[in-house]
Fold each of these.
Amino acid sequence: MPWKESSVMDERLRFVARLLDGEPMTQVCRDFGISRKTGYKIFDRYKEHGLEALKRHWGARKIRELLLRRLPGDIRVPANSTIHAVLHRHGLVAPPGRPRRRATGTPLSNGSAPNALWCTDFKGEFKLGNGRYCYPLTVTDHASRYLLLCEALQSTREDLAITAFERLFRERGLPDAIRSDNGVPFASPNALFNLSKLSVWWLRLGIDIERIKPGRPQQNGRHERMHLTLKKETVRPPGTNSLQQQARFDEFVREFNTDRPHEALNMKCPADVYIPSRKLYGGLPDLTYPFHDRDICVTACGRICIYRKKINLSTALAGQRVGIKEVDDGIWIVSFMRYDLGYIDLEARTLQPLDNPFGPRLSPMS
């Protein structure tokens, strides 16, 4: 629509509405015939000093109503939860009235002490002598290079991995953080924040999750180097069956930890450096949300129900309790543990996620 067909205010509203709805700045600026520099100037001015509606005493519902009144019917106005999330992101709404410790997407940690960081991965699958495939699940302590686990599993299923990790936690205690790649079962590419049931379980145990960037195996370099040695010494040729292969893995773990010196450890063996964690595994602690209005259990299909309205969250959170708090008329914030996930718009029955509280949003295609 040419500039002369509407007021300057209406054009700016149309411009900002499309940005709030998630359209890229480049495309919107191209459609309006302005430069990206001008577009960012308009958007920044709108966020900081613009319409009266953006002041704190205007909520998302009122802003949306103003947009509906002023914009032509062919312009798609964002949902209340989307508008509230934008206001939240730019500090234009008051935060929920509770102490907050939102994760900010920290970079990969140094893991300089035993149990500060464990690294895990599946070494590439291979075929055993009996024709069945073996999927070795491995876990190392980053600081000491100690090989904590090398388990011959029949697949990468989450239940098998959880069982293996539970045995490991009972034996060695809990780490502060676990680093993995973005593959299953450590992450789920289509789930909210790429969470999987395994990573949710880690979070419940108080373990931070770290993920390397896709295509950057060097970010788990120590673990990858161990895999090269493991492959060379245990699978060429492979065992006849999984029991025979596990016996080879067990012998490799013993030799790797107690006999093999490492230059990075001043020629000490990993067993000379590693000590079990003081954080003992005792099952899952209870979840409470004293600063929320209420807590709700996520259904098996990944939904929560508020006032008989069902909102999709994630099947990775199935069975978990989340806290909800009304922060505006019809707008609720939903949290898992200490992490704020996003805003729920009851009218639209949608969740508008916030920035990933568990680290940089890493998808297999990024």
Note: Residues 242-258 form the longest helix (17 residues).
Amino acid sequence: MVRLGEVVMILDLHRQGLPVSAIARRTGVDRKTVRKYIQAGLEPPHYGPRRPRPTLLDAHHAYLRERVATYPDLSARRLLRELRGFGYAGGYSQLTEFLRDIRPAASVGFERRFETPPGQQAQVDFAQFRTEFTDEPGAMRIVWLFSMVLGHSRLIWATFVMHQDLQAVLRCHVAAFEALGGVPAEILYDRMRTAVTGEGDEGIVYNATLLACARHYGFMPKACRPYRAKSKGKVERPFRYIRQDFFLARSFRNLDDLNQQLRRWLDEDANARVHATTRRVVAAHFAEERTTLKPLPAGPFQAVLRLERRVTRDGMISVGGNLYSVPDCTRRRAVEVHTLTREVHIFEEGRQIAVHPVLEGRGQRRIAGGHRQHRPPANSTTPREAPPMPLRSGDVVGRRPLEIYAAVGQRLAGGAPT
């Protein structure tokens, strides 16, 4: 195949006076082809379609066209079996290539934008971010962004957590509902394991604790269809928006600082902007939608997960990758732990001995006040409370009348009392 640039070179060499043989050697083109382009002048090469070669399928083209026109969804395997009955001895790929040309093109309809009425739906999902906190230089941390977006007003409520376990999901739900001042009628979830545990004969199986949370607040959980990211686009798109407009090119001291900056950005930028779809200020739009949310129940949801943990030699138990203290007076090495949404309760023989707030992240320790009454060794770096010094004899003085002290003084002076 001769390209237009080669034709220009052939004509240029011909104008320089080179013979056809020399032009053919220099360009690597046959001499007959050189003569043809010298005679034709500067015209782009034109190649017509090749004449199709006869195949074993040619005798069945009319039959295949009729069958596909009548039944467009017939499979190639089905048609191959029918052709075998007519004596077709060709291959399967030859048939599929022909069917690809004669099948009617599938019509792709326009996408329909899915809008929800006020207070009807919120969408929830997690996204992974990586950052290096300035308080921990050199340590790359993975943090998870929990985001809840109201489908009508597009208000974004979000927070970063260190891991996406069930307790973090429940804490985020409780905090989001309290911040919104109400609850949407339904919440659409991606098929994350903390929301959907699988599918049974009757449909989707939701996490039992999440269902208890839904009953407490009065919302209906709804899982989106698998591999259909567009069905939860209202929460997918803000992840890219948050990453590009907030997260990149910023530094954060720790998780608390990260969330403080995020809340400030949400209030001052994300929810204060005019949304590209609704053409309304998000915060003002939400002020109208807020009245349609379901009211909050009397108290927050408290899920109780019962665990059994062994007390370590330094008086700590491990829950969720963090260590919590028990009092020095704890006698049993095995204790029962009730993990609530925001607190960890520790029981010994049915008696509550400690309460701790849930620690975010992993690898942290918490020693509650009053749990360490014994002095630590001199070389210990574990923070402990110093117990009060024991009282010695004479440290406590009883109260007596002043006359007694006057009589003792006179007697010491050698005089009689007056």
Note: The radius of gyration is 40 Å.
Amino acid sequence: MKVFCLGGAGRICREAVLDLVEYSEFDEITIGDFNEALGKELVNELNDHRVNFVKVNVMNHDVTVEQMRGYDIVMDGTTITLNGISTACIAEAGCHGINLNGFGAEDEFSEIFKINNRTAVPGFGMTPGVTQMMAMHAANQLEEIESIRVSHGSFRPIAFSKSITETTTYEYDPDLPGRIVFENGKFVQVAPFARPRNIKLPEPYGETVQYIIPHSETRTLAKALSYKGVQLIEVRGTWPKQNMQLVRSLYDYGIISNPKVVVNEKEIGLMDIIGDYLLQSKAGQETELYGYSLHVEVVGIKDGVKKRHVLYHTHPSSDGSVKGWEKLRAYTRNVGIPMAIATEIIAKGLVKQTGVLIPEEAFEPTMIFNELKKRGIHVHEEIEVIDESVEETTVQS
């Protein structure tokens, strides 16, 4: 098997590459990146005969297609704004594909993947990705679904990379049509910082206030579970407290919409200036607490009994006590590892459907959970029986 790791030298995708080297059965692992220095540095660091480097510019479509031809799968670590461009290359090259974001730019290429008997799964990291697996694991135990609330705490610096800065601006864009909830059979658009809810995450994260964010789980879970009558799907998220305070201020002052200002007789986006500052500043590159924390709550009915399933995950500490999980890597490994796991599952032919698939259609949850467990990432489940006439009785499993 051969895998082409597009954007493989980036801070998150390199974690997926590291996981492929350590755990997968790929015979060739190619790092394809525009940054030649970082790509070759990673090849030297890995020191594995299966790993090589190719310089790639996805804006050069024809050349990129030829570079990808012959690979079983392309593991795409490019940014949100490039996913449509990169998927066009992957589809034409006749490869399977997978990426981290899943905002819908890939859907138009579904027929090409089908013609080539190939599969593409957009949006498979920790969230979206593992979150859908957690929701489906609970939903599979219930006959009817009332509500699904997906939440996550992403504890990382606000601007450790340009793509992360881009994500911040994207998710809180006031005019973004994709910031939606699913309610009573309809998708409803909401504003930034809508529907605050207290979510209790496991230590060391604790209780957080989270807001609706534009993530693909809202649409994919509505599609996957329509037959179970789901009435409400909400997806929330948070970053470290100081990051949220900054983003809220930028939003309140109208800056997050990136208004143009004139500086030295040149017109520049104000958010672009702030983003560049954060990329170059200590405040943008560091945070007090590092890691990732998922929390998924599913309420539904089984055998006439109303139940609440709460799933959450834990991972090795970022305090240096576990090698390889120090500080920022406690965040980046959480995102990169699930994509690597899913990459190999697809390449091995274990996903039988072709075309562009949502994660719920592609993967069986326990298979993902078992692979995560091998890496020290654990999914936990608690089940409550809800008696609405008396106090709720909690049963843990």
Note: The two ends are 39 Å apart (CA to CA).
